Amino acid sequence: MAAIDMLASEQIFYGCSPPAGFLTDYSAPVRRPTKLTSRGYSAPSLSILKPVQLSLKSAPRSCIRLSAEKKQKRVVFADDRGYALEQVKFMTEPSHVPPYWALKIVASPPLERKPPPITVDSWEVRFSQPASDYLEFRRRITENCVALENVIVKHNEGAVDGTVKVKNLDFEKEVFIRATSDGWRTQEDTYCAFVESGPLSKNGLSMYDTFGFRLQLPIHSRKLDFCVCFHCKDKEYWDNKNGENYTIEKSSVRKSPAISCARIKYGNSWSRSDVGHTPYW
């Protein structure tokens, strides 16, 4: 029984030991593991381990594979494999001329026609603003006692707004605009409203007074002529632009229609339905 325990311990020791080539000399005998037979464990056999010589059969290879051989490409047609051709085209044009059927498939996009220009009517003042020349404006007030100051055309309201300055000759005074739209065959007077007083003189009275007015633009006419009248102390003072009258005339202007901007869709959520409905210019 003791012999069996000794043989079992030797089996476990030699079975789990590292290779002999790394720990012992090549000339030293190596104990082989025992074998289990029907009668028990057989005695281990001793043999001499021969040294092993390592030799390289080929040169060391790199980890990067370099392929010196070029693969030959082959083109195989469907009829070579017995499949039916989808479409057959016979081209009679020379090789340097594009085929005629390709021009039908790849057609140029149609040119977009620009919309025609739009005619817009606009009222324009045919005289310079009187107050822009201050010296001439003040001279006319001093000598003629009345002068048109400024005029503004308001197209959205269809009216003309303006101001008039008069010399303060007396507290009781009237200022009105005489206008016509048919070449003075008919005329209409529009009274002005007091706006403010001017600077005071040495005796404490204002030197000038400002009046405002509004004239409606004619609907069935393209021209409006008017002048200014100042009535004070049973006397009238006129400002008619030295006999020429002030004129506001309607003119037709051709304008190109505004081009709508393209809608920009942010993000990547494009769908197939957006392709045909979104402008690309």
Keywords summarizing the entry:
single chain, 281 residues, alpha+beta, Immunoglobulin-like, 6-stranded antiparallel sheet, 4-stranded antiparallel sheet, 4 helices, 14 strands, elongated, disordered C terminus, protein phosphatase 1 binding
User: What is the CATH H-level superfamily of the domain at 121-255?
Assistant: Carbohydrate binding type-21 domain
Derived from helix and strand composition plus strand pairing, the structural class reads alpha+beta
CATH architecture of the domain at 121-255, please? Sandwich
The shape, in one word, is elongated
| Estimated share of beta-strand residues | 25-35%
CATH topology name of the domain at 121-255: Immunoglobulin-like
List the helices and strands and how they pair.
Blueprint: H1 2-15, H2 20-23, E1 29-31, E2 36-37, E3 40-41, E4 46-48, H3 100-105, E5 118-125, H4 134-144, E6 146-154, E7 159-167, E8 174-180, E9 188-191, E10 193-197, E11 208-216, E12 223-232, E13 235-239, E14 246-255
Antiparallel strand pairs: 1-4, 2-3, 5-14, 6-7, 7-11, 8-9, 8-12, 10-11, 12-13, 12-14
